Amino acid sequence: MKKPKSHFLVYLLPLLHLCTCIIIVLAQVGRGWEYLGLIDFPASVLIVAIDYNFDHPLVLFGVFGTLWWYLLSRGAEIVGARLLNILQKRRERVS
Q: Where are the domains of the chain?
């Protein structure tokens, strides 16, 4: 079975998240990670629980947040591909 080729948009959101983390660190935005936590909301609850005694919360937000956005993008790609497949089969039956 041939594996479908991933679309470049799957990597866009994780890349933007990682770049945002790097910019927050380099620009030394004091409350930047808090705003980033709002954007990463469901995953940020877990991240905040883990980084309670961690000195660099942006490291965790960078790693787990980027992974979170990758999983969301990948999941959306899989669901979209299945929906397109269903629609194509439905069109073939109608024709």
A: 9-94
